[in-house]
Amino acid sequence: MSRQSRADIRDWLPASGATIVTLFAYMPDKQVHTNDDSSLRRLMRTRRKPLALLLSLPGVWCSLAGAQEAPPPDIARSDGLVLRTVPALVDNPLGVGDDVPMYVRGMHLTGRTNVDATVDGDAEARKYRQFVKGDRLTYDQDSDEVVARGNAHLSQGGNLFVGPEAHMYTGAGDGYMLTPTYRLVSGGGGKSERADIEANNVVTMQRGTYSACACTDEGQTPAWYIKASEFEFDQEQQEGTAYNGILFFQGVPIFASPYLSFPTSTERRSGFLAPTFTQSTRTGFELSTPYYFNIAPNRDLTITPRFMTKRGVMLIGDLRYLEPTYAGLFHLEYLAKDRVTGDARYTFTWQHSQSLGYGVNAYVNYTKVSDDTYPDDFGAGTNFQTGVQRVYNREVGLTWSYGDWSFLARVLKYQTLAPSAPQYESVPELSATYNKLDFHGFDFTMPIRYNRFQIASSTGQPNGERLYAQPTLSYPILTPGYFVVPKVIFNAASYNVNYPNGSMMQSSITRTVPTFSFDTGLTFERPVNLFGTAMRQTLEPRLFYVYTPYRNQSSIPIFDSAVSDFNLAEIFSENSFIGVDRIQDANRVTMALTSRLIDAESGVERGRVWYAQRYNIQQSLVTMPGGKPENAGVSDFLVGGSALLYNNITFTSNVQYSPNTSQFNRGDAGITWRPGERRVFNLYYRYLRNPPPVVGQTALTITPINQVELSGQWPITPRLGVVGRLNYSITDKTFIDALAGFEYDADCWAFRVGLQRYATNATTTTTRIFGQLELKGLTKSGNSATEAFKIGVPGYQAPPTNQIPSRFSNYE
């Protein structure tokens, strides 16, 4: 078409804002006929090669589109180019509705106006979000049906169906196909005897199969598939339903159900999570089959039947909820009758937080366990780092923030499982804290707290009340090169103690102790060149002085205080005790020196070494009951370091050494190598001369901790990986805990298996074997196997989740 002809065409456009659809007709010595009596008898002649036919004729194709208004006059030229106009979709820019035009392509067209039409040769008809292809297309206007025969393809909303014959109703937007092979927009697909496609994005299959596996070879059987008498896929809800379905894995039926619901996207959907198989010395063979209920975007529920051959059937439920003003969860484990003990066994947890407005918030954290041995028998609250949990909180409280004030009111109780000793409960605790920062350079804080403590009478310990206040004033001077922080603290407490009958101990006690501290440090920096890399080295000396006069506190009971662990944080603190029942007298200086190597270009810290030691100018006399005073002179010194090597190797080490006894009291060293994704190797060494006792130990049976720990994750092949952990006691010459696992990650499924051994107390251990099968696209991974790997191996990475393709991935 020449430029002049295009200019002429623009002159023919109506002024009402209509759209123009162009007809290209390239036919080799052929005639294309229509029966439009008002216009065309002979459309065109040409001797050019056949390319394509794109039609928009008002007499035929506008009727296909359902247009109700008469078309505008034809625009015909002697060169065979015919232009037609269709009404502009001004009020419907997306083209949804009966006025949406249909576009047809093919090699040959014949038809009768307002009756029927036939397109032969690579025929295709398209309308909004749907198309139909085939060797031949026929259209019947009375039924508003387009039929494709021969290599038929039908697509609606991104779902594609391929078969010998397809039927599409253009006005209704639905259709059907016999014996199709189909692929849903979500990525799943299969075969069926008949597929019915509805305009509301619902697809129904009769007597077919479904799988989310993407088979690369023609005719290849998926690793897993569902065979059912009927499928229903709701694209809006992104959910599929199988009626009278059987689940096959590697060609073997593994599950059957008259009703089976499953998700068709990566969004949260109701359905089964990956089951877990376990063999344990305490519970026997276990099978856990979680079912996830996606109640709402802000609510969900997981129900897990736990079948145990030695114990019976336990029901586990987890309910989560999230609202603009409150959130929380319920967790319940219930076994109606334990086959070993004959009793009902259970645990229940409720965690809730709620905003009440005006800065007031409420919270609940409550756990109830049926008996002392429940966590030992069923593994509740057990992991490698913390062992078996034996103390459970039961707490409810209110918090309020107003300006510089914050308030707390709570009741804190515990359920303590034997053989752990009972703890003091605070019923209630009322506290208020005032913070005023940078007031003319001063920082002022003042916590005020009231507690009423009680404990079981069988312990023989007193109950009591405590009122405590600690006003603190400091004047921090902070600069890039140095800092100075002088601080004054006033510790005031009043006790009213109720001792058991017959005790001659003082019941009313008042204590006031002032404390002064001075913290200062310098930062020096210089450029260095290390192994050809520009670095910045720092030198950071620090000096910390604290003075607290002696006050006799031996008559004060210990409600919630303990000796702090000796570490880098404690050595720079004013009080060596945790809590407020003991304020240590002190006249001491702490000195420390730190040096860092920082990459000058990236700012990454490549290495650090530090040293800290305390010097007691005079002896500290305040102790915990049964403790010894801290002598004058130098304390243990702490030295440590860390390094980042080759961007994937990190090394850390810390040592506590006593110059008075010439002994190492603590030491640990660790190295981590992370060369790539899902590749990690950890090596740790730990030594502790005087560890705290654990459950089941007495003071006479406590031995030093001298352990070596190895853990790692490594792929053997692109699909198969191993996970392992060994914690070996050099002192006892035995394994404390161990984990060995394998992961196989295929395109359509994953399998994890592990062998785990851990201690439940000082004398007993539990061994279990677990396995988990995940069918990708049908079930999502649960927590049992992957959680055990994460806890056992620092830096563990789960295999990546397959992403469901976009609706445009298979766009035609």
From TrEMBL:
Compartment(s) where it occurs, according to its Swiss-Prot or TrEMBL record: Cell outer membrane
Any Pfam family the entry gives: LptD
InterPro entries named in the record: LipoPS_assembly_LptD, LptD, LptD_C
All residue ranges annotated as the LptD C-terminal domain in the record: 345-719
Protein name: LPS-assembly protein LptD
GO biological process, one term: lipopolysaccharide transport
Family matches, as HAMAP family: LPS_assembly_LptD
A GO CC term attached to the entry: cell outer membrane
UniProt keywords, alphabetically: Cell outer membrane, Membrane, Signal
Subunit structure: Component of the lipopolysaccharide transport and assembly complex. Interacts with LptE and LptA.
Organism ancestry: Bacteria, Pseudomonadati, Pseudomonadota, Betaproteobacteria, Burkholderiales
Organism superkingdom: Bacteria
Role played: Together with LptE, is involved in the assembly of lipopolysaccharide (LPS) at the surface of the outer membrane.
Membership in a protein family: Belongs to the LptD family.
